[in-house]
Amino acid sequence: MKKLLGYIRLMRPANVVTSVADVLAGIAISGSFSLTGWSTLQLPVILLCISTIGLYSGGIIFNDVYDADLDKIERPERPIPSGLVSKKAATIFGAVFFFIGIAAANLFGTTTSVLAVSIMIACLTYNRWAKHHSILGPLNMGLCRGLNLLLGVSIISSQVQQWWFLALVPIIYIASITMISRGEVHGGSKNMLYFAAILYAIVIASILFFATTKGDIRITLAFIVPFALMIFIPLLKAIQNPIGPNIGKAVKAGVIALILMNAAWASVFADWKVALSIVILLPLSILLSKAFAVT
Q: At the N or C end, where does the chain have fewer CB atoms within 10 A?
């Protein structure tokens, strides 16, 4: 049982739930929920969710594989440095999840398959090289989330060409979280935290812009307001006292809050019922975050 929990810890299950929210938001952006009945969408939605679960899990597992030596110093309690899971076993575990993610995507068209492979490459590139670069690393991590949003949009492949630029929003958001996460162990810079706050504001403004042009801004505000509170309250505490634990809480809140951000997207491109179905994932992610580490 202890070893099984070690494998589950490698997957960061609370984070995996947020990746499902990305895909559901992408499906909402594609217009599928408005064009097709749920009975028709069931299998495609399930397959895309399986794909993102596989791809995200594979990426986060390989993050620990590549960080094994560093974690011996900074996070010795993690499954690999603690000896609970061997580096070889973790590598196989991550490869299996990547295979599942790509195999599920291959059941769709070429666009979905290309996106799935691109996500895997982006994950491995970040884990192996980019994470050590102050600018490229955050952008690379953001790219993984942006492509994940488009993975959902690809349920109607032609919609990817129309809405590809929306991936810039999660790229900016995740890049900002990645930048501040570098202060989790030794503390961070107030200037970096202020910069993250500006990027957060840009993300919120972008979603509200589309809400004014395509949706009902009053409905979107019902999701954006709690999203803003969830990310800014811990960030402001970290700005006041930028020690490692405070930054860690800001990062954790930022990751889990992705569910609310994705619900806001769904409220713009679909309706409140789809958005609410995404929000249901929030308590699940929070519950899992209490049992398993997010970062």
A: N
CA–CA distance from 23 to each of 18, 149, 217 (Å)?
Answer: 9, 5, 22
The one-digit pLDDT tens for each residue of the chain (295 residues) are: 788 999 999 999 999 999 999 999 999 999 998 776 666 788 999 999 999 999 999 999 999 999 998 889 888 999 999 999 999 999 999 999 999 999 999 998 899 999 999 999 999 999 999 988 989 999 999 999 999 999 999 999 999 999 999 999 999 999 999 999 887 766 778 889 999 999 999 999 999 999 999 878 999 999 999 999 999 999 999 999 999 889 999 999 999 999 999 999 999 999 899 999 999 999 999 999 998 888 7
Q: What are the start-end ranges of the H helices in the chain?
A: 2-11, 13-30, 32-35, 38-66, 68-74, 87-105, 110-128, 136-153, 157-163, 168-181, 190-214, 217-240, 244-256, 258-269, 272-279, 281-291
pTM, 2 dp: 0.94
Q: How big is the chain, counted in residues?
A: 295
User: For 11, how many CA atoms within 13 A lie in the half-sphere containing its CB?
Assistant: 25
Helices 244-256 and 168-181, interaxial angle, to 10°?
A: 160
Q: All domains of the chain, ordered by start, with CATH?
A: 11-291 (1.10.357.140)
Task: Name the DSSP letter for residue 156.
Answer: S
Give Cα separations from 195 to 56, 135, 173, 179, 188 (angstroms). Answer: 27, 13, 11, 9, 12
- Amino acid letter for position 293: A
Q: CB neighbours of 257 closer than 8 A, spacing ≥ 6?
A: 227, 230, 231
Q: Whole-angstrom Cα distance, residue 204 to residue 158?
A: 26
